Amino acid sequence: MTATTRSRLSAALPAGLVVRRLGGTLGLLAVLSVAVFALLQAAPGDPAQTLLGPRSATPEALAAVRARHHLDSPMAVQYWYWLSDAVRLDLGTSIRTGESVATALGDRLVLTGQLVGLGFAVALLLGIPLGVLAGLRNRRVTDRAVQSLGVVALSTPAFAGGLVLIYVFSLMLGWFPAYGPGEGAGTDRLRHLVLPALALGLAVTAVLLKLTRAAVIRELGREHVTFARARGVRERDILLRYVLRGTVVPVLTGIGLILAYLLAGTVMVEQVFALPGLGSLLVDSVTFRDVPVVQAEALLIAALVCLANLVTDLVQPLLDPQLRSAPAARNPSRAKASAAALLSGTREEGKA
């Protein structure tokens, strides 16, 4: 990295801004870890009996389990022991399978990551172009048609959409497999993940579509766009150089929120398509009260969501110079509030 590049990066991302964002993310993770630990500890039943599972629960066995896992200690001490082990990636042992929790999560994280990545690609490839088209054809037939399709996609739960996709593309047409992860990580895995990715991505495409449409409409009404048209600048250049550049920040904010939704949506999609990912592992662990796995996976998902929001907050000043010195740069919620305002404005236009 050259000195010029480092200076530009330092100007776009001051050290104080990065430290504040990192501190806020770590603080949020700490609060979430307390919430996850407290909620599971407050669940009905004896934690020692849960850890023993179906084995004989003699008084001696219960006392040994309580001593091993510090269950006789105050809640704050139990949390400290659990968090200390989690920081060292010692997430305990699964009650149901007896394997390391870290190993179980690592084996399934790859498949879930592939599913989320493909679903994210589906949302980008459909949501942004359709949103731009709807914004350019504001209040015309094309706009109404695109918005109607978006409402249908948004109103359809991911599991219901998955069942429809299985019936049409697997049972009727036979184009794609109906269930399972496939063999290896090549073409066969991709064929097995196409339908789950479509079911997952279509559920959030409408959100990205509406956000892009609202941003395009807002940029088309700005003075510099009107001035460019008055000077005879081609519509294509106006779209690429002015309109689309102005939509980057609100759309980027929406992308960060969509990633969080995709991680949560994998639970139902993996169940429908029988995929052995984090979602199905979470369902099985909750069913069998596998507390160590539930705690570790809940913390992992929370960390991934926080990481996605942190990256979004840090990338925004790099893409929009105004955020480097504007009050929005000191207030990370400003861009998200702007995105919410764009969506609310779109709803009001639809009602009109």
Automatic annotation (TrEMBL):
Domain ABC transmembrane type-1: 109-312
Pfam families for the chain: BPD_transp_1 (PF00528), BPD_transp_1_N (PF19300)
Membrane topology, record value: Multi-pass membrane protein
Segments of skewed composition (Low complexity): 329-344
Domain of life of the organism encoding this protein: Bacteria
Location(s), subcellular: Cell membrane
Transmembrane segment boundaries: 115-136, 148-173, 193-212, 242-264
InterPro entries: BPD_transp_1_N, MetI-like, MetI-like_sf
Keywords, comma-separated and alphabetical: Cell membrane, Membrane, Transmembrane, Transmembrane helix, Transport
Stretch list, region Disordered: 329-352
Keyword Membrane attached: yes
Listed PROSITE patterns: ABC_TM1
The family this protein is said to belong to: Belongs to the binding-protein-dependent transport system permease family.
Protein name according to UniProt: ABC transporter permease
Species the sequence originates in: Streptomyces poriferorum
